[in-house]
């Protein structure tokens, strides 16, 4: 980077131009300055794919397996490839800065964004996260590591004060960020919360003292959206860019005035502008600097997602070779997540894929006509209705599937009309200027007679019309987080008796609130359905008559999402009851858990097999089928501890005074639990072959471990090294071994440079109680 040329551009700017460059020019952009050759920088969420600047089903994106699933591969090389695929998506969408990866730790499994983070272990998080950063930036797109720092809970996330001791802060929570900076990250996002009494956007000790001075970070520190709430304090602390900056800003004109009054030094402003110009040069948005090499989404992108999802799947239990499935003649596929699959969690990480493959889809393709699939939901745990299915709709203007969205001004004049292939809409900006009312309308043809349930979903004033039924309601969120109001708005249900095959008009009228943060609204729906007791009984009967049963249970984006923490680790609704009942009816019951964060599994010893599928992205159903039939190895190992109960689980909820005390110090995850509190330990995962550990040697900070595939098929083993010293244990390193039947392979593991000396080193697969060193499998 030719810094002198950057300084020449800086010298051409007025104070107003410099300061205004540091505040968002729109929800996702920084302003261009054409006379110095600076194009507008474009940002986008997120960790599960690159959504772009609109939340719109017409602009689809690849939906990746959730970040915890990526960490479950324990494979930095794969993380780098997935990062590059993210970068390619960003380049195709004209995005310069991707707001990912999220590298906060799994302090507690109750954390609402647990699924969006990698691991409870700082070393595993650091290595996977740094590799992801390298991959994104190899495509000429800036990775933004977030949320710096201590942003491990969602309850009162805008204000809570994380009280973290120096040792825990340095050893655990800062470690992944430091490694990402060493890997060359071009951007870091400052969090909403406070750390040790000071808001992160005003925390000079961490932003300037640690990030910029100690670590030598030369990139841009961008705020989380609306996280900057002061002028001089945040500017002086080390913040560089305020987002989104509209409609009001504590920077912009206030910061100009603060500089003119001498309260903020202009040299500080110049440093911030240089960082923005440096970022623009790196991503090809500054004339006179080389553009990144051309990159585009490859033709095999879907195959890559499918492979990654299968490699992330963790086989937790497999009794008597229940898996792989042996071509059953009649297979019962049961469970709410079999029919309403959770491919992703909720929140700003959400993207709109062009398709989502469900486990039912995948199993039908994988097993073919030789297997009869009987599909039953069993129970209804979802607290909110799914959007009205497009298959039942006819857009009134075009006759195609979909919904017509009309925007009217206060006088009733039509401003704009859109054909949409969705029944739920999110606007972060983008509503036509002058809009006073939005009307969503379609024709819906019921598939069966009976009472059909519709829902108004959103905050604000609404009127729903279905056939001759009318319902007017004003819905108000019961929480103050504007993001949660967008992503989990209130719902009002309406029941309508309809006849199969007879089209009826459906219309939702919405009056947007003036000066709102954004808008989210839609039409929910479910068809007539039996009582839950009857649905559960039908599922059990189907299992009893089948050769095997696959029960797909899990969470959904009403449970795992940005904006709120979980209050329980239990599966929602009566899913535990369903699993136990099916297992009692069929001894060949395989449970697939479709969740991003741990859940309690009180039935885990009652079933033949448990496969943890995560929130596996758009190709997840095919990946699950691949693993179930043995076309792919379940390659994942747990990157986080799965507790057996709520006993010992740390709370994500701040005290009444707003403080969240990290009193456990460095004892989180496997360093925290006793063996009696653990259902499945950190690092655990089975496969479809067996392994023998033959040797372990250590030299020059590298461990060499030889493993032998003693089974009858090729397999994948994650070799893990742990260091034991002074009564404590920590992950020292890991590597992936792949071998054909009967073959041995030696892997080289770069050990953590921060290991305590002296220490004892052990290599193996999974450890039951890492603090005592007792093991579940043999260790070399």
Kindly list the characteristics that best describe this protein:
single chain, 780 residues, alpha/beta, TIM Barrel, Rossmann fold, Jelly Rolls, 4 domains, seven-stranded antiparallel sheet, six-stranded mixed sheet, globular
Describe the structure.
With 780 residues, this protein is of the alpha/beta class. Helices cover 23% and strands 26% of the residues. It has four domains: 3-51 and 62-282, Glycoside hydrolase, family 3, N-terminal domain (TIM Barrel), CATH 3.20.20.300; 302-381 and 532-673, Rossmann fold (3-Layer(aba) Sandwich), CATH 3.40.50; 386-526, Sandwich (Jelly Rolls); 689-775, Immunoglobulin-like. Strand 6 (194-195) and strand 7 (198-199) form a beta hairpin. It starts with a helix and ends in a 5-residue tail after the last strand. Mean pLDDT is 95; it is low at 767-780.
CATH superfamily of the largest domain: Glycoside hydrolase, family 3, N-terminal domain
- Low-confidence segments: 767-780
- Beta strands, count: 37
What is the share of helical residues? 10-25%
CATH hierarchy class name of the largest domain:
Alpha Beta
What's the N-to-C terminus distance?
Answer: 48 Å
The value of Rg in angstroms is 27 Å
